Amino acid sequence: MAEGIRRLPSLNGLRVFEVVTRYLNFRLAAEEIGVTQGAVAQQIRGLEAELGLKLFDRLPRTLALTEAGQSYVTNVRRAFELISDATETLKPEQLHLTISVTPTFASKWLIPRLPDFTAAQPNIDLRILASDRIANFQTDAVDLAVRYGRLPLGSGLNAELLFENVLIAVGSPLLVEKLGPPGQDGNFPRYPLLHDAHDSWPQFLELAFPDNLPTTAKNIRFNQTSLALEAAIAGQGLALTSTFFVEDDITSGRLLRVLPTELTVGSDFYVVSPRKPRHPASVAAVKSWLADAAGR
Domain HTH lysR-type, which positions (predicted)? Predict the structure, then answer.
């Protein structure tokens, strides 16, 4: 017959002990647990009697862990974490996932491909958080993010390249027909330039026209690349954009690449996730789909 587990101290007493070690105050511990201060003190006295050890020194305004108490709480916390992990593995993984992306990435790349995602992963409830603010994986309950930047992107994170960021200039075919090809016959100064928050036009123009920087008819500024692109589609000027944002617009004829110049800025788009994700199967499935959709 298998040997049973050796007799353990009161698990309720151990739980109270762990809470008290965080506050070093019976009253505050009692508030967290939802019992009286006297009940907390009684649980600690009982645990100390059961162990035959003093776990706390009672000081005038606070408590202090004894050497034995300090050693004990380290192992008690580890044991509670093991129990918690074992319990979590019993639960079926929730098939939802929150992904944080920029508004431009959402509108110009992700949302048009959501029907493909739904077909490929019908059981995952995808929640899209579109914001220029960098989401926090813990406080914002984000599972996955597409971030623009340079490595490293943060400690404790996995970052996998999704798109290299190569900028091209685009405009409406109707505007090009009206003003003439921007790269020919001094036509470029006729075109208004549509800027976004990255403001890469000066760098792009130095590369495109190294010998004679053109003047521009007008500069219009937006805080989102997607807004600059919508203005370009509407024929209001030329915009700079990452190539993958406008693949669909160029294919459909809404936009036209107007110059052969390509600007590589050194910051790229990465899929970022915690090294220990809350929902590993869902995160792995969405990362795989993103990589396939990006042609990686």
Answer: 9-66
Is the fold of 11-90 the same as that of 96-158+269-293?
no
Q: Write out pLDDT tens, residues 169-188.
A: 999 999 999 999 998 888 99
> Could you state, in order of their start, the residue ranges of all structural domains in the chain?
11-90, 96-158+269-293, 166-264
State the architecture of 96-158+269-293 in CATH terms.
3-Layer(aba) Sandwich (3.40)
DSSP summary character for residue 117: H
Query: What is the C-alpha separation between 90 and 94, in angstroms, rounded?
Result: 12
Query: What kind of architecture, by CATH, is found in domain 166-264?
Result: 3-Layer(aba) Sandwich (3.40)
Topology of the domain comprising 11-90: Arc Repressor Mutant, subunit A (1.10.10)
244's tokens: 């993958």
- Gyration radius of the chain over CA positions: 30
Fill in the DSSP letter of residue 7: P
DSSP assignment string, 220-288: EE-SSHHHHHHHHHTTS-EEEEEGGGSHHHHHHTS-EE--S--EE-S-EEEEEEESS-SSHHHHHHHHH
Question: CB neighbours (10 Å) of residue 122?
Answer: 8
In this prediction, residue 10 has a pLDDT band, given cuts at 50, 70 and 90, of confident
For 79, counting Cβ atoms within 10 Å of its Cβ (0-12 exposed, 13-18 middle, 19+ buried), the class is middle
